[in-house]
Amino acid sequence: MISTPALVAPSAGAAFEARTVEHRDLRDDDVLIDIAFAGICHSDIHQVREEWGSAIFPMVPGHEIAGVVSAVGDGVTRYQVGDRVGVGCMVDSCGECEHCKDGEEQFCAKGAVMTYNGTGYDGEPTKGGYAQQVVVSERFAVGIPDGIELDVAAPLLCAGITVWSPLKRWGAGPGKKVAVIGLGGLGHMAVKLAAAMGAEVSVLSRTDAKKGDGEALGATHYFATGDDGVLKGLKGTFDIIINTVSADLPMQTYIGLLRPLGVIANVGLPTGNYDFAPGAVVGGSRVVAGSNIGGIPATAEMLAFCAEHGIGATVETISADEVDAAYDRVVAGDVRYRFVIDTATINA
Length: 348
Ligand SMILES: [Zn+2]
Ligand SMILES: [Zn+2]
Prior knowledge:
Layout: E1 2-8, E2 17-23, E3 30-39, H1 42-48, E4 65-72, E5 84-87, E6 90-92, H2 98-101, E7 113-114, E8 133-137, E9 142-143, H3 150-153, H4 159-169, E10 177-181, H5 185-196, E11 200-205, H6 211-217, E12 221-224, E13 238-243, H7 251-255, E14 258-266, H8 278-282, E15 287-290, H9 296-309, E16 315-318, H10 323-331, E17 338-342
Parallel strand pairs: 10-11, 10-13, 11-12, 13-14, 14-15, 16-17
Antiparallel strand pairs: 1-2, 3-4, 3-8, 3-17, 4-5, 5-9, 6-7
Helix pairs in contact: 4-5
The structure holds zinc ion (ZN) (2 copies).
């Protein structure tokens, strides 16, 4: 077994404890990664607080992992010791179904194995990135190009790929008007990526508190949707709306902001249902879509794009003892725009 210091949530909602945890010895296709940084994703908080149904404790969260390969299994061909790599939301899939063969491992027919709060095909619970080391199959490690620092790379492995997928699928680029609802961890990446793709980007945020930030991140327009008449004035404007908000929102009103054939792609998971009349989509042949992370080839493509365009997440680096407080700040929307944990500060 490989022992590593980690931040462990002992039970639902309890404070983190620094403890030593164990990973399997390297299989033929495994790499051992010395983790440098792990991002804090809002979904970590939902799972640690057991807000998404029954969770597995003790839990080591973290699926925005950036580090360096420090050992390789006998059969590893893709990586060498010293390579910079990231790990996102998945650490295994069957590799044989049509979706795996298409490089869309998140849709694996057998069920992809989640990086933490999941169960591996060997029956062992998975442990994530709030740790100094992790063991994963080389198939689920993604090379991080030189030119992206590891701290700003970590959030790309979940927040980045989550918004990259719908932007690519729905054709964000020159001549397209893209709106991003919510300027948080996901939203700030959507603005950066859509702007770099050449789209004309608008931020739709409740207040004008982040106006300066939105423009600095690459948005051409910023609209405070809580102000009277603002949404009404945007009817029929956008080709693509990326909705990053997990709160309930008036879907029918937002569908109305789309041009004919436009699409609103939802990446958040509010607890309530979306409500809209069939005519809202039929009239303009509009699409209400969802999107769930992205496969390993798309993740590599996204990282190459980010390196080419000098894009990383905008991060606030914290130490291990600040994670509990950081969770409260994420829930309060008080982070610009992603916390990353310096895993060297975990003292177990
Ligand atoms: Zn995430
Ligand atoms: Zn599969």
